[in-house]
Amino acid sequence: MNIANIKKLVKLVETSQINELEVQDENLQIRIVKNAALSPSVMQPQVIHASGPPVHSAAEHPTQIQEAHLEISSASGKENLIEVRSPMVGTFYRAPAPDAASYVNEGDSIKPGQILCIIEAMKLMNEIEAEISGKIVKICVENGQPVEYNQPLFMVEKAS
Prior knowledge:
The structure is a single chain. The longest helix has 13 residues, at about 5-15. This protein has one helix and twelve strands. By secondary structure, it is mainly β. Helices cover about 10% and strands about 35% of the residues. The chain is rod-shaped, with a radius of gyration of 28 Å. A hairpin with a 4-residue loop joins β1 (about 20-25) and β2. The strands form three sheets. It has a five-stranded mixed sheet with strand order 3-9-8-6-11, with no helix packed on it. The chain has a five-stranded antiparallel sheet with strand order 4-5-12-10-7, with no helix packed on it. It has two domains: about 5-35, no CATH class; about 65-160, CATH 2.40.50.100.
């Protein structure tokens, strides 16, 4: 391989989308890397299909409303006591901002559609709404605490 051919290969790498080229000849091995020090290796994002609701970017929707999972708590002995569970993994916040008042407190009455808390997941603030009318009996999670999927967030006494 002569110098002219090597120059052609270098020019090819410079003018194309190729980042790296390696050529082997009988007596010679050439490896040409474009911007090796400047461009770190970038992995292509993977598409993960989930059965849940679609997730939109923060630019499209500043907050996303999620439905909380409600289940009757049979361990408490009261049939009208409902657990509001986390619909996702994330960080639990009782208020829209650190200096703002909490959405709900123990003893507060709630109605369907009322925001109970926010769960931050992957930099998205997801508002969790009440699905029933009732009274907050207990808040099961501390502000700023990580929560798991299906973890109880609130105990609500269902209105009769």
